[in-house]
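Q: For a teaching handout, I want to show students what a protein-ligand complex looks like in token form. Below are the inputs, and the small molecule is (2R)-2-hydroxypentanedioic acid. Please produce the holo structure.
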Amino acid sequence: MNKFRGQTAAVLRPRSTEEVSAIMRYCHERKLAVTPQGGNTGLVGGSVPLHDELILSTSLMNQVYGIDAVARTLTCQAGCVLETLNAALAEHDLMMPLDLGAKGSCQIGGNISSNAGGLRFLRYGSLHGSVLGLKAVLPNGDVIDTMKGLRKDNTGYDLKQLFIGSEGTLGIITEVLMGVVQKPSAVNVAFLACPGYDQVQQTLVAAQKGLGEILSAFEFLDHEGMRCVNETVDVPNPFDSTAPFYVLVETHGSNSEHDYAKLEAFLENAMETGCVVDGVVAQDATQAAALWQVRERITEGLQHDGVVYKYDISLPVQHLYSLVEAMRPRVADLATRCVGFGHLGDGNLHLNITSPTASEELFAQIEPFVYEFTREHRGSISAEHGLGLMKARHIHYSQPAANVTLMRQLKGLLDPHGLLNPYKTVEENPLNV
Ligand code: 2HG
Ligand code: ZN
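A: Here is the structure, written as tokens, with (2R)-2-hydroxypentanedioic acid included.
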């Protein structure tokens, strides 16, 4: 994002849990700080060293140990790239339960450390549910091993959960045992235009009702998001005329004709009730991929404007877009664009405001307003990207003081010298970056 610039004396590239353990033991004895780094695709600066931290890169830890097609599990090292894992699983008609735009370079260890959500969370759920086990190296070099691969195991605290979403501040994930899912033999994609946000919400309700268990994604973007991909990355609007909102609906199932008929019936109904004013259903995989491009390339498109102020907010669906509506007049004279898009089915808004160069005046219109609005509506200031460096000091907007105290106590217990990914997540950032 050209926002977080770090420096380091050395990048360490271990190949095994044992090597990571030896590194951490060494660093612990000498009080050397370490920033773990996976595919470096995060959006909140979580993998950037701030002062003189060593980088521990997981990129050489890229072995797939095995796929169990009966138990539906995959065992691998943390540095495996998400897309590579999907390619290996495809041979068994299986796939990973998560998918995100960064799939070509993000690593599974980083996905789990940041508890990445992505495009199909609606259907396959959180990594807190689909990670069945992992190995994590603690700051003192000890190895926590939860790799038994059992789906049910109620013996004491579920320790692996500590490392899911803690952004490499409590331990370094080195090996992973994932619960994986059936690769759907029937995938359908529809792209819809809606006349207003109320109609977008009604379309979501209709999709949940009419498509039920085959609904695998419900993504939305506003007209500013559409204009951005049209102008900056040459992705065309599938429709001749523009609309205030667009929705991408996807189904994953096992019977193509049956799913297609369901999707058509849903669409017909949505058009009859006026929730949808225009709609197209992909006729083949190429067309489906082209429709996905409109949604998936917004992040890249925004980058073309220069500086991007990026927010990843959880809000109740009915209040979700009012944040964009409240923000737009505040930034109108200063920003290039103010775009709202995201995972509507999960109540997750991506609010992005762009400008040619960094502007304090613009920033003052955005923060703390965006966080105050989120707190007022009982939302979360980070739905899926994490706190990293960018939002660590704002944790109070989404967590009560006693929760933050317990988090800091846990950090102190596992990492008494504060060596692992310092200044991130639950720690105050001394530089106020
Ligand atoms: C997405 O859903 C990513 O495309 C990135 O989480 C969101 O750029 C963003 O704000
Ligand atoms: Zn997202």
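A: Two things your students might notice: The first helix runs from residue 17 to 30. Residues 81 and 370 are 33 Å apart (CA to CA).
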